[in-house]
Amino acid sequence: MFKLNLKIALRNLFKNKVYAAINIGGLALGLTAFVLMLLYINHEESYDTWSPDLKNVYQIREKHAFFTPDNKEHWNEISNSRIANLIRTKLPQAIAVTKVDNDWDFIKGYSLKIDDANPVMMPKIKDSDSSFFKVFPYRFLQGSEDKALENPKSIVLKESLAIQLFGTTKVLGKTIKVIRWRSDEGTSLTVTGVVAEPKYPQSVSFNAITRTGDRDKDPENPTNNNYCLVYTKLNKSSDTLVLNQTLQKMYVDFKKNLLSSQKKSYNDIYKDGRLPGLKVIPVKEVHANPPYAMSWFEKLKPVIAISAFLLLVSVINFINLATAQSVQRAKEVGVKKVLGSHKTQLTWQFLIESALQSVISLFLCIILIEVVLPAFNNQFKVDLSFWHNAQLFAMVVQLFGLFVFVTLLAGFYPAWILSNYNPVSVLKGNYENGLRGIALRNVLVVFQFVISVTFIISIGVMQMQSQYMSNKDLGFERGNLINIKSNYEDNFAERLKKIPGVEYVATTTQVMGNTFNVPEEVKYKGNAINLNTVTVTMDALPALGVKVLQGRIFSKEYKQDTINTVVLNEAAANLFGKNIIGQTYGKVDWEGKTNIFQIVGIIKNYHNEGFDKSVLPTVYKVTGLGGTSNTNNLLVRFNTSKYNDVIGKIEKEWKALYPNYPMEYTSLDDAFSKSLEDNNRFVNMIILFSVVSVSLSLLGLFALSTFVAKRRTKEIAVRKVLGASNLQIVNLLNKSFLILVIVANLISWPIAYILIKKWLEGFAYRIDMPVLPFIAATIISIIIAVLTVSIQARKAAVSDPVNALKYE
Amino acid sequence: MVGRQIVLRFKRPNLQPSAFLPSTLKKMIELKNIEKYYANKGIKHYVLRHVTTTIKQGEFVSIMGPSGAGKSTLLNILGMLEEPTYGTYEFFGEDVTTLNERKRIELYRNHIGFVFQAYHLIDEMTVYENIEAPLLYKKVGSSERASRIANLLDRFNIVAKKDLFPNQLSGGQQQLVGIARALAAQPSVILADEPTGNLQSTQAEEIMQLFKKLNQEDGITIIQVTHSEKNAEYGNRILHIADGVVKEDVLVR
């Protein structure tokens, strides 16, 4: 019986090739989007699961205000380095405790130099203490866990780095010099081990772990603190709630001691119910709970929702086509019932047919995934693989689950409808039952179109916003400008200025790609104004090519510029009021002295961060009065657009001065593209999903209109005999679908409006809500729907009515 | 359902023409006071009224009458495809009006074979598979299945057609397959609804000859609905129906 049913299923697929292709292809598309999502989620979930021993490893989190975004107390991944010692000595369950460097945004890597070879920049070189490999059970290919970091000045490499640097993993005893900044003399370290890359990603990822000795001790002066990641391995997996209570008690005592040695009072700081805090979280949960950024799951939520919707759209197609097709199968059901088939047997038969189609789509989907995975990896900056996946078994189980789910979702309703046909009416040729479920089908078509129209509107608005952003006047000239990752050093700067083609060499703490804002409060005419201070060199504003609105910018001709003049941007000027050129304001410095500054010019706001953030009210100054700040920005403006040769010359100068540290730079064009990157990625993804969703809906509509035309063959024939023209017939068929599409449009307008408004609100610089995409989406959806339906309607209209009326 | 229990049983004139049939033949179907009506806005539209009759094993009964007389409804009731609104129907002594679906399907599998005017072969199955289908439902073993089908194909001279699909056959051939399918499960009775209605007269004649042969040589009970006086003559008993009432019950010599 099963074999026969399978045969019938296959024969039906071949008989209705086009619809089967639409069904299977559509489902495969929907599945692909969903399975990609699954792959990604599996990848994210697999963090820190590469060894069973990791279940006893915990990260320490401390509540403090050091380097938090708003300078207030929060739970942080980085803790005071003294906590490691506290846990080691006071917590009996702790077998091992280790301190290791955090990933700082502003450190891109260290320079590694082997003998006389050229230095290479290498990210994720982390300094730790002797216990790192006692906490994290990496597998040693060379060296051993207990010996590797026994002595200071040692370094343990990941397999991949050893091969990159030496071409082999047999590198024990070799020396690597680590240079941490441009003018650092460097530390020579001996390779004492090579570890294998674990199967799954790690939240404490590294290319090399060093033990320079710096992490061995804590700062001696109690007012100096050093912050780093602290991990501990306990003798058994513990209840974190109980553990955290113990830690909290320990920590309060520790904090009291520390504060009293800093000559501060614990009771003054922790009052009104405020408490210090120390806790552990299992290392497996670290990746999913970053302290400030959104967790991967939060970020992914909209994408998960969209891919789930796509899957739903394809499943809807499936249901629609299957129920529409059911008219054709009605006779089979009737006959089989009369021959003695149970209803459940029939239900099974139709479920098997759905399953057959799902299986084919699943295979197609796996092929599709192989095809699109490289692009997906590129978009999301991950390295996913289907076949070379450590979780292949889990993946297969999930796919099987998905297969069962989709089969039931898509197949159950049609199977139920079909197996319920009453044999008497069906065998009499009465297909009234075929009309059953038409309301449901209409609802499903509307639902599909709501999703599609919402997508079309969204991409319209998103495109307009993207256009607006990439064409917006940035307030500075981004062409022919590069930013070398280095601070300003006179000797080097003077050498560069002599190179022909170089127009300006300057530094600023505020430029697109690297901005370091220092907040301050000033007094102007008795009012306090909060500003953001940027220290620049004389040439920085001309180098950026900012636009002067009033007054002047800094210049060597004015001696005063090195004493107490400032330039404001428009946003800051608006806070001061009108006619402020030549006015002065005061600022109290940390010693309590009031410094007086004179405003000499106002420049147009220039963008230094993404368009999601508004330009801060900023004061620019050259003078060291009131303190300066600096960061690794060295702007070089060229007076030619063919500046590659010039860069070559700059690199030569760099090598002469800093042979141990490679030069890094970005062009401001690239920095600008990078600021748009996240948005473009999102928009591209939405466009992709829209195209898939719209084509799925159209395929569904196409197939459905075919069946409707077929079912109404007799009606059409009768109407033709009565004198209807072909056009009237086409219109007749179009009308029923057009109503659905219009209803879908009406529903999707408010939905799209709300979603898009929310998206636009994420931008400080945005377009007004445009009307055009809404109208365009409606017109487009109606036109394509009419075209799709007309293809079938025309076929039905021109057919010879005699054929339809001959048999009854 | 309670309503059925309180049927008033009228004494009806016994129209049973059992004179020439051996009275030892087993009673197969016994209809008592069957009524069928559709209520529409409180008005009852009768399709069948007071139908009482007995059909014995081995009879070949033709139900005749004008369009809309209720012939097909009667056949559907006999085939348990429709339920009567009133009356009792006993099949081999068992009341089947209150049968549950599982039991009814058992009857379909073992006792009743249907033949339709429009053949109703399953388009996606070959001739062979169409004939095989009822045997699969009956869970007949594969070797037994093969031999039975071979037998039927041979008998109906359609061996060469066994791998063709229904739409590759002529109407007469399709009906042969339809009858072969009905016979495959070795039913006690064949219910045929205008089996020759869609056929040309020569083909129709062949089909009727076949029915007659099946009845006389194999002793299969056949009940057919027909329009044609000529086709009705092939059987040995004719029930004339008009306006839902059995007007006449005659034997054919």
TrEMBL record, chain A:
<feature type="domain" description="MacB-like periplasmic core">
    <location>
        <begin position="451"/>
        <end position="617"/>
    </location>
</feature>
<keyword id="KW-0812">Transmembrane</keyword>
<keyword id="KW-0472">Membrane</keyword>
<dbReference type="GO" id="GO:0022857">
    <property type="term" value="F:transmembrane transporter activity"/>
</dbReference>
<feature type="transmembrane region" description="Helical">
    <location>
        <begin position="768"/>
        <end position="791"/>
    </location>
</feature>
<dbReference type="InterPro" id="IPR050250">
    <property type="entry name" value="Macrolide_Exporter_MacB"/>
</dbReference>
<feature type="transmembrane region" description="Helical">
    <location>
        <begin position="355"/>
        <end position="376"/>
    </location>
</feature>
<keyword id="KW-1133">Transmembrane helix</keyword>
<feature type="domain" description="ABC3 transporter permease C-terminal">
    <location>
        <begin position="305"/>
        <end position="423"/>
    </location>
</feature>
<feature type="domain" description="ABC3 transporter permease C-terminal">
    <location>
        <begin position="687"/>
        <end position="797"/>
    </location>
</feature>
<dbReference type="GO" id="GO:0005886">
    <property type="term" value="C:plasma membrane"/>
</dbReference>
<feature type="transmembrane region" description="Helical">
    <location>
        <begin position="396"/>
        <end position="418"/>
    </location>
</feature>
<feature type="domain" description="MacB-like periplasmic core">
    <location>
        <begin position="21"/>
        <end position="205"/>
    </location>
</feature>
<keyword id="KW-1003">Cell membrane</keyword>
<dbReference type="InterPro" id="IPR025857">
    <property type="entry name" value="MacB_PCD"/>
</dbReference>
<feature type="transmembrane region" description="Helical">
    <location>
        <begin position="438"/>
        <end position="462"/>
    </location>
</feature>
<feature type="transmembrane region" description="Helical">
    <location>
        <begin position="303"/>
        <end position="322"/>
    </location>
</feature>
<protein>
    <submittedName>
        <fullName>ABC transporter permease</fullName>
    </submittedName>
</protein>
<dbReference type="InterPro" id="IPR003838">
    <property type="entry name" value="ABC3_permease_C"/>
</dbReference>
<feature type="transmembrane region" description="Helical">
    <location>
        <begin position="20"/>
        <end position="41"/>
    </location>
</feature>
<dbReference type="Pfam" id="PF02687">
    <property type="entry name" value="FtsX"/>
</dbReference>
<feature type="transmembrane region" description="Helical">
    <location>
        <begin position="682"/>
        <end position="704"/>
    </location>
</feature>
<feature type="transmembrane region" description="Helical">
    <location>
        <begin position="737"/>
        <end position="756"/>
    </location>
</feature>
<dbReference type="Pfam" id="PF12704">
    <property type="entry name" value="MacB_PCD"/>
</dbReference>
